[in-house]
């Protein structure tokens, strides 16, 4: 009788450790470590390949994993694809920072990304005969909004820009996105949402405004660590 080979990829090698069906995905692997050490019990590390730390534990008795994804659509798309198709993850929640491009957004505000507009070409591989609207899982979005309301935390719900470009040589690009009602800019949600939609699983991006691009306001590294607590606690409650 053949024994089944343990599930692993060149990028994720759990060595037999469990990866839960619900996972939080910060870009920074050190933030994944912080979440595991601060909020989870009975923690087991399931990945350290390329420094992309991943952990599984329990939060209020529910199994939950957390893992870094790196920056940008290519990195997020690689890790989320493997988590979904190799390890069976069903609920993927990105938690990260964003740059606001609307006047009514302020530092530390939380954004639930209902939609993800993008300048990325990642979608071309799906070969859809038209323009696909990239959206979050309504189930996760609705739950996150209710959790925020119960905590008395104001959140903004709407469309965000998932961009491949951090340093844009066109200084007017974000102004044009702003005119279309885009709330803020980040770099990963489109790849996550597309992978989730293709596989029929759930995905949501929860963001904290770390800077306001037009007003040239920003949080320090220390302020980011503290102010991201509200976002992380909303995400943890989704487990």
What would you say this structure looks like, in words?
The record marks 224 as: Important for catalytic activity. It holds the Pfam family PNP_UDP_1. The chain is α/β, with parallel strands linked by helices and 239 residues long. It has a single domain (22-237), classed as Nucleoside phosphorylase domain (Rossmann fold). 30% of the residues lie in helices and 28% in strands. The protein contains seven helices and ten strands. A five-stranded mixed barrel has the order 5-8-7-6-9, surrounded by four helices. A hairpin with a 4-residue loop joins strand 9 and strand 10 (217-218). The termini are far apart. The model has no long low-confidence stretch (mean pLDDT 95).
Give short descriptive properties of this protein.
Nucleoside_phosphorylase_CS; single chain; 239 residues; Rossmann fold; DeoD-type; five-stranded mixed barrel; 7 helices; 10 strands; alpha/beta
Q: What's the CATH topology name?
A: Rossmann fold
H/E element order: EHEEEHEEHEHEHEEHH
Backbone CA Rg: 17 Å
- Residue runs with pLDDT of under 50 for 5 or more positions: none
Domain module count: 1
Strand order of the largest sheet: 5-8-7-6-9
Shape estimate: globular
Sheet with most strands: 5 strands, mixed, barrel
Assigned CATH architecture: 3-Layer(aba) Sandwich
Q: How many strands in all? A: 10
Quickly name the level 1 CATH class: Alpha Beta
Helical content class = 25-40%
User: Please, how many helices?
Assistant: 7
Look at the structure and name the CATH superfamily. Nucleoside phosphorylase domain
């Amino acid at each position: 009788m053949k024994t089944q080979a343990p599930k692993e990829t060149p990028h994720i090698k759990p060595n037999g450790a469990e990866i839960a069906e619900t996972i939080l995905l910060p870009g920074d692997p050190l933030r994944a470590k912080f979440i595991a050490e601060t909020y989870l019990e009975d923690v087991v590390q399931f990945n350290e390949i390329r420094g992309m730390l991943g952990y599984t534990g329990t939060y209020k008795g529910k199994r939950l994993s957390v893992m870094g994804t790196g920056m940008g659509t290519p990195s997020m798309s690689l890790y989320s694809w493997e988590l979904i198709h190799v390890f069976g993850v069903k609920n993927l929640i990105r938690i990260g920072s964003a740059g606001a491009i609307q006047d009514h957004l302020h530092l530390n505000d939380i954004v639930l990304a209902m939609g993800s507009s993008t300048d990325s070409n990642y979608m071309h591989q799906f070969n859809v005969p038209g323009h696909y609207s990239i959206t979050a899982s309504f189930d996760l979005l609705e739950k996150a909004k209710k959790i925020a309301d119960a905590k008395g935390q104001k959140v903004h719900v709407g469309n965000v820009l998932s961009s491949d470009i951090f340093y844009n040589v066109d200084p007017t690009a974000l102004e044009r996105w702003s005119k279309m009602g885009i709330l803020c800019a980040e770099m990963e949600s489109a790849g996550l949402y597309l992978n989730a939609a293709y596989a029929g699983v759930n995905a949501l991006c929860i963001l904290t405004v770390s800077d306001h691009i037009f007003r040239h306001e920003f949080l320090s590294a220390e302020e980011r660590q503290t102010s991201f607590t509200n976002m992380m606690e909303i995400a943890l409650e989704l487990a």
